[in-house]
Fold this sequence. Notes:
The complex is a heterodimer of chains A (468) and B (120).
Chain A: H1 2-8, H2 25-44, H3 49-52, H4 55-59, H5 64-86, H6 91-112, H7 128-147, H8 151-171, H9 175-196, H10 209-234, H11 242-253, H12 258-266, H13 268-288, H14 313-336, H15 344-362, H16 364-370, H17 379-399, E1 409-410, E2 413-414, E3 418-419, E4 422-423, H18 424-449
Antiparallel strand pairs in A: 1-4, 2-3
Helix pairs in contact in A: 6-10, 7-8, 8-9, 9-15, 9-18, 11-12, 12-13, 13-17, 13-18, 14-15, 15-16, 15-18, 17-18
Chain B: H1 3-22, H2 27-47, H3 68-99
Amino acid sequence: MVAAAAMLGTAPPDYTLAIWHGLNLPLLLSVLALAGGAGLYFGLARGGRLHRLNSENWFGVLTGLNLFTHGYDRLFNMAGRLTAKLETSSLQRYIALTLIAALVTAAAPLLMGDVPGTGSRTLLPVSLPALAVWSLLLLSCVWLVLRHHDRFQSVVVVGVVGLVVALTFVSFSAPDLALTQLTVEVVSTVLLLMGLALLPRQSPRESSTVRRTRDAVLALCGGAGIAWLAWVMLTRDHDSIAWYFLNQSAIAGGGTNVVNVILVDFRGYDTFGEIAVLGIAAVGVLALMDGMRTRRPTRDSDGLPWTFATQPLMLRVAARVVLPLALVITLYIFMRGHNLPGGGFIAGLITAVALVLQFMAMGQSRAEALLRAESGKRFVRWIGVGLGIAGLTGVGAFVFGQPFLTSAYVHPTLPLLGGIPLATAALFDLGVYITVVGSTLLTLSTLGSVTRDSSTPAVPRAPNGIKA
Amino acid sequence: MSLEFLVATGIGVVAAAGIYLILRGRTWPVVLGLCLLGYAVNVFIFAMGRLWQDAAPILLATGRIADPLPQALVLTAIVIGFATTGFVIEMALRSRHESGSDHVDGHEPGHGPGHPGDKP
């Protein structure tokens, strides 16, 4: 009954079911139909006539079997040809097709429906520095498109774009983002340069004019589309769900830096997922580079050495002095994160930058020996510890009968220190901090380990080893 | 002209440069292109909260306060963007190590796949 009602969507009509309804008219009709059918068959099939019929005598080649198998083969051949046309094992082609599809999908509903124009929000006036920074950004992007063949310089120019992004965050009231962007910029530039040391310094100019034109058209369409979307959005006022967070941040989260309270408290589950992704990416890097050993050229194509023969004295001394200072600043940034710009992500990145400086100043082996990191593999444990702390903080809420990652805070008054805010969210943030440091160092140290022992000329592994 | 115009066009230009670079044939420009696309997308999402000056989402200040939600989303996006950049760089290195070519298809143009170590 229930199943029938679910299938029909309404209550089923009245009916009665029984195995034997007695002798009645429906039964009589069924018996007549069966007997009639059987009689017809035996009448026609006498002497096996029916079985000797050949459908080809009647229909020629257009038999059902032929139609089916031929149609089937045609369909398969067509699919094969289509696949061969599309699947050329050329990444450039795939990306171009994907981009075209994305552009068409994004543009179609807008072009067919009403095209929204400039909104009515009061706009901010332009200042001279903003115009200067904008011009710098345009120049950098044009330079990158035209001159990206010089890989070393293009890393620097990408860094300029990153700094402009950081400036954008500063000027539009996002101090947390600016700090994050700035520190990430430092670490990723180091990472890019380390990677570049193992790749050719120049990209060959090999794209045909047709391809460059196609790519330029695609890039311009995509850029114009996203710029237009941003313009349409920025010129309209909005109603955000964030006002709830603003109202509840101090009361429910116990912090005044709303961005940080959202990260470690309101949306703690998201953040937990995100640091997990961070850890997975770093461990993925380790797996990717497993067993890869290569010889780094000691000099680049201009004859300049890639590494210091001995680390410069000034750098060594400076690194030694900077480390404790950086760690104190890290602690400060971490502690104030709940109330002022800072927090686990930023503190973790600053620590990573300070440690990367040690790597540069004393060489990877010594730095890792000092960190007791055993050729970097130990950083995996840091990631594990960080994720463990964050996860256990979340599970801790179960003890108090609360859902996962529910945060609590107290303001105990201690002698000498006065009232200090303590939130369990800070413990979660500690997990974030350790994961960020571990992931960053694991990524860098894995990349560095590839050329470990580069001073002794290694035998190229297999015939496909990189030839400098 | 307004700051909104500068930000919108800036996002567009960076995205366009990023798209152009990810369509190149060598792994290195693709890595840089992904970096640029990441910047553009991060600022785009950040701009979802609209642009506010002198209104940091810190509750100590009185007056206007910027939308903190896109900021929180973008903060983690920046860090994850770094992690994926690292991953892509090392993938580029490994690819060149295995195939002897830094072309995105894993072999020099004109040489079929399966000939590691082929030089142009």
